[in-house]
């Protein structure tokens, strides 16, 4: 599980997230949504411990600020919005980085169990055909799937993903969300930042909505993405056919 209590994040002297509190149980899949600049990525970075914050974050019942970097990595895996890879590694070696907290080694030097975990993660990300290929030679969508596999290869019980669908075609967006739902069903806690509200409502039993740095809605999709929230936060409404459209075109 993971929780935030009165979480506040400041950048350049300005609060980009203020007094955010929520608690997620084991096996829960939650979408974190909101318009551009709402503070979603800042909250995720604070949970991952890569940006300073005030308030309390707890990961698997442990205060995050008391954990070492390795202890945090064993509890939490984070997929950032920007994912540079400095070296032209093989795809499977990038995925193997997800095992680093427990077994720091390239794929061909890993033990049998760790290699099996890497291959299983590649299968979940529909990326096994990329084994043996140089990461820098892959398309943006293929790289995104390798990064997803890296996250899934981690044994951490908490997964954080920041806009993982951005570079993916619609088929792989659906596959990714199904894979995250399966991880939650297996007991992992998953928070995923999404811009596609329909994907969030379809796959995530819980939706957290942010606006201007504050958490303004938290609940099941029908409640968190009510007509009032859609209009006030996103400036959209549902048409008679159920499609989202601008509230004031």
From TrEMBL:
It comes from the Bacteria. Residues 2-237 form the ABC transporter domain. Pfam families: ABC_tran. InterPro entries: AAA+_ATPase, ABC_transporter-like_ATP-bd, P-loop_NTPase. GO terms for molecular function: ATP binding; ATP hydrolysis activity. Keywords: ATP-binding, Nucleotide-binding, Translocase, Transport. Part of the ABC transporter complex HmuTUV involved in hemin import. Responsible for energy coupling to the transport system. This is Iron compound ABC transporter ATP-binding protein. It comes from Hyphomonas hirschiana VP5.
């Amino acid at each position: 599980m993971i929780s935030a209590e009165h979480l506040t994040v400041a950048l350049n002297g300005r609060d980009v997230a203020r007094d955010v509190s929520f608690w997620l149980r084991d096996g829960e899949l939650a979408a974190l949504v909101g318009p551009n600049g709402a503070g979603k990525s800042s909250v995720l970075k604070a949970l991952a411990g890569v940006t300073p914050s005030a308030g309390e974050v707890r990961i698997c019942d442990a205060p995050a600020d008391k954990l070492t970097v390795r202890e945090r990595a064993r509890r939490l895996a984070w997929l950032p919005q920007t994912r540079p890879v400095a070296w032209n590694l093989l795809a499977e070696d990038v995925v193997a980085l997800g095992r680093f907290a427990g077994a720091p080694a390239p794929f061909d030097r890993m033990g049998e169990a760790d290699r099996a975990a890497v291959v299983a993660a590649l299968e979940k990300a529909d990326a096994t055909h990329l084994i043996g290929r140089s990461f820098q030679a892959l398309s943006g969508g293929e790289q995104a799937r390798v990064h997803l596999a890296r996250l899934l290869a981690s044994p951490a019980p908490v997964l954080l993903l920041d806009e993982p669908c951005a570079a993916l075609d619609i088929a792989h967006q659906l596959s990714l969300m199904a894979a995250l739902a399966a991880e939650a069903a297996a007991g992992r806690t998953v928070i995923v930042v999404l811009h596609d509200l329909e994907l969030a409502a379809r796959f995530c039993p819980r939706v957290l909505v942010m606006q201007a740095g504050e958490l303004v809605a938290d609940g099941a999709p029908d409640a968190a993405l009510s007509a009032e929230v859609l209009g006030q936060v996103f400036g959209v409404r549902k048409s008679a056919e159920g499609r989202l459209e601008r509230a004031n075109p």
